[in-house]
Every structure is written in structure tokens, then in C-alpha cells.
Design a protein that fits this description.
Elements (H helix, E strand, L loop, with lengths): L1 H16 L20 H4 L13 E4 L3 H12 L4 E4 L6 H4 L5 E2 L5 H5 L7 H12 L5 H20 L22 E2 L9 H4 L6 E2 L13 H14 L3 E3 L2 E8 L5 E8 L6 H19 L3 H18 L1 E6 L2 E4 L8 H7 L7 E2 L8 H8 L4 E2 L4 E3 L13 E3 L13 H12 L4 E5 H14 L4 H10 L3 E3 L2 H8 L3 H17 L19 E5 L11 E4 L2 E2 L7 E3 L5 E7 L16 H30 L4
Parallel strand pairs: 1-2, 1-10, 2-6, 10-21, 11-18
Antiparallel strand pairs: 3-5, 4-5, 7-8, 8-9, 12-19, 13-18, 14-15, 15-17, 16-17, 20-21
Pfam family, one: FAD_binding_2
Keywords: FAD, Flavoprotein, Oxidoreductase, Signal
InterPro entries: FAD-dep_OxRdtase_2_FAD-bd, FAD-oxidoreductase_2, FAD/NAD-bd_sf, Succ_DH/fumarate_Rdtase_cat_sf
Length: 594
């Protein structure tokens, strides 16, 4: 609990030290507008009543807004209903998009030779059975155009390549190797290329990450295109007609006119809750969530909205404890990364019309051992003293092995030479508040001993086996042989006492918490994004995107893959939903409006 408090204090000090920032979760069309009249500064009709649109999007995160833009570009009128005030988990994320195949930023960094085929070979190993081959190829082929599409809608990227291994770049760099591209066996399958594209801009939270920058750019673009946005709007039922065709939604919402003051206050409470969800300080996050929920319950009124086409993009289910415990046995041992909206409600809506689900038992948990990158020079051992996985792998990849084969327990072992290098790299390779947290780790939160045997005993690790493991690691380096578990880089011998150990086992809270979120969702048709039932039949008029749909990152996660899927699946759903809405309107016209 002390460490959670420390993290909250660090983040709070960062917020206090920074100039006041305008809210990223705002329903105003112009953040510089200071009108007191909400009718003049919001995208609502003056009556607070929204006309029936061609398409309803449930969820105003990155996937939902991408879907809304794509639909509007194709001539559809769109209303976005969001239970919060926009952004969702996307806005508190790092904002990284996994993209390749020769993006402008890759070319700037000297990696213009990356191709869609090269990207496909790499992702085929990561994605596994989560996507069929044709859909994955389509994603890779569209990666460059999708990035250009984002740039046209106001997102700024840059090709400044991080020269060191990192889990998230400092503000000097905006392109990096965000996955397993350089690790075995991936580097043997495809030529390594940096594909983690971070939006450039001032971080919008105490963590200084730019997920809010990404979301705000597309949100503003959507409003400029005439997309209507209703915050504090919770969809409770999908409506169908007597023939089972999509008819619209039943939802509860706070009125932007009669409840304008309460709505603004609700937005502030949601924003504060999101800040604390971002750093997994759940007590404070849940306190703000409860206050927001109480206010919404008092003010929200029931409404219906008619449309023949609905896109579900309401986030994942990491905050649904019943589901996470049912599908993932170790879910209570990790920190849930998400917001209160990640309760599975969008998935449940799809299931209510017969939608099937997939990969619900997959959860990504990551123990990132870098930066500083010198930490990768050590080795990670189990309680039994054996190597767990190659330390240069992405943190979620090695953490998966630690969970499945070693009970979620692991220990990072380094010698004094490596430890000194770690200390020397902290200033340049880390960013606040992580700089303070890493310093706390290397100066206090570790175990130290004059011998490897003594260190093993202090860590409660088998000393004999750990000694053999270190010897095998050192022997391979000295003899020029491949690493016993396939580590390709950052290989230096562990020989100079004293020795250091860091417990990297699963934890749900504290400084060394392991963040996680589930990867499954509704099954969708790969070509259209339309939800399908257990037999594979499409449910007409119903689409899903982002974490409501099983997709690109449903087998395994690397940084940027989830938001790349939001972009790909959101745009796919929007384009196809617009075509479906146009067809429905034409059919209605031919039938005389009946």
C-alpha cells in the first residue's frame, strides 16, 4: 500500500508541477470556447434530443471514433454513445500504433525496406489463430494507408528512433522496436524493423503518455465531420423488429441541457478516475467511479434511438471480476489495466443477439524489464533456479512463460558490473515518473548478496540449480555459442560480486505490480467486422470493433498492437456499416417506408 501511495504522490506532484491542461475527455467542440451556455459549446441539438442517425456507435474510445469517422466519410450520419466522456482506456494508454510495411516514419529512421510481407511473416507468429491469414494480410497491406489516414485527421507521428531498448520512449523519440522483432525466433522469421509509432505531443496525464493526444485528434476530427457525441450515455439493450432486424438501442443518458452542470461535474469525476486507473491506484479510482456512478444514477433518463446499423466498440472486460475469474484462473494476481467502462457490457450486448465469443481465456500480463536496457543483460530464473525465457523478449511474451510454466514466480539476477550500468542509464533512458520509480528499485527494492549462493538463499531460489544456470549462461558467452534459451543481444557474463536480485513475480498492486488485460471478444467476420453467431452466420446490422471484437491482439499482445487493431477494425466496421446503412435506406425507400 505504501508503494501505491508513493506512485500516486509522484504522479500528483507531476500534475501540480505542470501547467494546467485542458481536459481530454470533453464534449465541447472547441476547448477554447468559454461560453456559459452549453447549447452554444456542445455538439448537441439545442433541445438535447438527438435525431435518429444512420449508424449508432456504442463506445467513444479510439476504435469507436475511428469507426465514426470512417462511416461519416462514406456519407452516413453517426451518433456515438459513450458511458463516460470519451477516450476510454485508449486515452490513458501510451497511444502507440503498431504499423509497418514502409511507413513515412520508418523511412525517416532508415527502415524504409520494411514491407507488408515482412510484417506479415512476423505477425503470423505473434497473432497465431486470432486472425485468419487473409485478414492479417489485409491488415499488413493497409498499415501504411491507415497511418496516412490518421495523419490526415490530425495525428502527428515522427521518425525519431529510440537508440535503446525501451518499453515506452522518452520525449526525445517517437519510433521504437515495440515487440519481439529482434528476439528469437522472430528475428529468424522476418527482418527486424521498428513498428511502434508513438503520437507526438504533450502527454495529457500524470504519466505523460500520449494516448490522450491520439484520441483527442481523432475525436476533434469526428466532430468537425458532423459526428454527434453523447457522453454519460449507457446502452442497455439492442432493439430488433419482429423479423429480427436491427432497430436501434435503448439507453440511459444525462441530458446536456437540463443537467448541464451535473454532466460537467460527472466528466471531471470520470477524468480523475481514469488518472488513477492508469496507475492502478484502485482505491482512489473506485472512489471517483462511485461518485460518478451515483451522480449518473440520479440524473440519467431513459431514451431510445433508432437505427438499422449498430457498431459495438465499448471496450474490454478487465473490470468484470466475475468474467476474469471465470476465464483466467490467475486474474486476481495481476493489476487490472483499464477503466470502469471495461466491464464487458458491449460484448454482452452482442451476445444478446446471438453473437459468439472467442479467446476469452486469453489475458496479456507483462513484466517489462527495461528501460534501462542494461537490466536485459541479467537473467531471469524461476524459484527452481532455471532460466524462464530469453530476457530480450517483449515483457508479455516472457511473462506468459513465467505464468504457464513457473507459477508466476521469477527473479532477475545481475552482477555488480551490470548493476552499475543500470544506474548510469536511468537518467537518459527513463522518463518521469518512471525515473523516480526505477531509482527506488535500484537503491532500495532489491536483494543483495556477496555470492550467488547467498543471493539464491535470500530469494528462496534453489541455489544449486541457479548456480548451474548462471554457469551455463556465462560459458555460452565466453565460448561464443548461442544462448541456452535463445537470447540474441545484451549478453554479458554474471561474475562480479556482489550480486543483485529483483523479485519480478506476479503482483496485483504496489511498485512491482504486473498490469494485465484480457484479449478476447465477439467473433466477427474478417472482411466486414460484422458480428457472427456460433455457426458463423453474420448478424445483419451489428458490427464490433476494438476490444469488443476478437482480433489482431487476441492471441498475444505487444505494444501498439491493440490500438492498431482499434484503428483497423474500427475503420473496417465504419466503412462496411455505412454501406449497410445506405442499403437499408434504399430498401426502405423501395418498400415505401414501411
Amino acid at each position: 500500500m505504501f508503494l501505491c501511495t508513493l506512485l500516486a504522490i509522484i504522479t500528483g506532484l507531476r500534475l501540480l508541477a505542470s501547467p494546467p491542461k485542458k481536459r481530454t475527455c470533453s464534449w465541447t467542440t472547441n476547448e477554447d470556447d468559454t461560453h456559459d451556455d452549453p447549447q452554444q459549446s456542445s455538439p448537441y441539438a439545442s433541445s438535447g434530443v438527438t435525431a435518429n442517425p444512420d449508424i449508432i456507435v456504442v463506445g467513444g474510445g479510439f476504435a469507436g471514433i475511428c469507426a465514426a469517422i470512417a462511416a461519416a466519410e462514406n456519407g452516413a450520419s453517426v451518433v456515438v454513445l459513450d458511458r463516460g466522456h470519451g477516450g476510454g482506456t485508449s486515452a490513458i494508454s501510451g497511444g502507440v500504433i503498431y504499423a509497418g510495411g514502409g511507413t513515412k516514419q520508418q523511412k525517416e529512421a532508415g527502415y524504409g525496406d520494411d514491407t507488408p510481407e515482412n510484417m506479415f511473416r512476423y505477425l503470423r507468429r505473434e497473432v497465431g489463430d486470432a486472425l485468419d491469414e487473409l485478414t492479417l494480410r489485409r491488415f499488413c497491406d493497409q498499415s501504411v494507408p491507415l497511418m496516412e489516414w490518421l495523419e490526415r485527421h490530425g495525428v502527428v507521428f515522427e521518425g525519431s528512433l529510440s537508440p535503446f531498448r525501451t518499453s515506452y520512449p522518452t520525449d526525445r523519440y517517437y519510433l521504437y522496436f515495440s515487440g519481439n522483432e529482434k528476439a528469437h525466433p522472430f528475428a529468424d522469421i522476418a527482418k527486424p524493423s521498428p513498428r511502434g509509432h508513438r503520437p507526438k505531443g504533450q502527454g495529457t496525464s500524470g504519466m505523460g503518455m500520449t494516448g490522450g493526444v491520439l484520441w483527442k485528434a481523432v475525436f476533434d476530427a469526428a466532430l468537425r465531420m458532423g459526428v454527434r457525441f453523447e457522453p454519460a450515455s449507457r446502452v442497455e439493450e439492442l432493439l430488433v423488429d419482429g423479423e429480427g432486424r436491427m432497430k436501434g438501442v435503448r439507453y440511459r443518458a444525462m441530458d446536456p441541457v437540463s443537467a448541464a452542470t451535473a454532466l460537467a461535474r460527472h466528466g471531471e469525476l470520470c477524468r480523475k478516475a481514469s488518472e488513477y486507473h492508469q496507475i492502478s491506484v484502485r482505491l482512489l479510482a473506485e472512489w471517483y467511479d462511485r461518485r460518478a456512478e451515483a451522480m449518473w444514477s440520479r440524473e440519467a433518463k431513459e431514451r431510445t434511438l433508432e437505427s438499422r446499423v449498430v457498431i459495438l466498440a465499448a471496450g474490454g472486460f478487465v473490470m468484470n471480476e466475475e468474467w476474469t475469474r471465470r476465464f483466467v484462473p490467475w486474474a486476481d494476481r495481476v493489476a487490472k489495466l483499464g477503466t470502469v467502462g471495461d466491464d464487458g457490457s458491449g460484448i454482452r450486448l452482442g451476445q444478446s443477439l446471438g453473437g459468439a465469443v472467442s479467446h476469452m481465456d486469453r489475458m496479456s500480463a507483462w513484466r517489462l524489464m527495461y528501460p534501462p536496457e542494461a537490466l536485459v543483460e541479467g537473467i531471469v530464473v524461476s524459484a527452481g533456479g532455471e532460466r524462464i525465457a530469453a530476457e530480450d523478449q517483449y515483457g508479455a511474451t516472457s511473462c506468459e512463460v513465467m505464468i504457464e510454466r513457473f507459477g508466476g514466480r521469477g527473479y532477475l539476477i545481475l552482477d555488480s558490473a551490470q548493476w552499475r550500468k543500470v544506474k548510469s542509464q536511468v537518467g537518459e533512458q527513463t522518463r518521469m515518473p518512471w525515473t523516480a520509480l526505477i531509482r527506488f528499485l535500484i537503491y532500495w527494492a532489491h536483494t543483495k548478496a556477496s555470492s550467488l549462493e547467498g543471493l539464491a538463499k535470500k530469494l528462496d531460489v534453489d541455489p544449486g540449480r541457479m548456480g548451474e544456470t548462471v554457469a551455463a549462461y556465462n560459458d555460452a558467452i565466453r565460448s561464443g555459442k548461442p544462448d541456452p534459451v535463445g537470447k540474441r543481444g545484451w549478453r554479458t557474463v554474471i561474475s562480479e560480486p556482489p550480486f543483485y536480485g529483483i523479485d519480478i513475480s506476479l503482483r496485483p498492486d504496489g511498485l512491482m505490480m504486473v498490469p494485465a488485460f484480457p484479449l478476447g471478444g465477439l467473433k466477427v467476420d474478417g472482411a466486414s467486422g460484422m458480428v457472427v453467431d456460433e455457426s458463423g452466420e453474420k448478424i445483419r446490422g451489428l458490427y464490433a470493433a476494438g476490444k469488443n471484437a476478437a482480433g489482431l491482439s487476441s492471441n498475444r499482445y505487444v505494444s501498439g498492437l491493440a490500438l492498431a487493431d482499434c484503428l483497423f477494425s474500427g475503420k473496417r466496421a465504419g466503412v462496411n456499416a455505412a454501406a449497410a446503412a445506405a442499403a437499408a435506406a434504399a430498401s426502405l425507400g423501395r418498400s415505401g417506408g414501411s
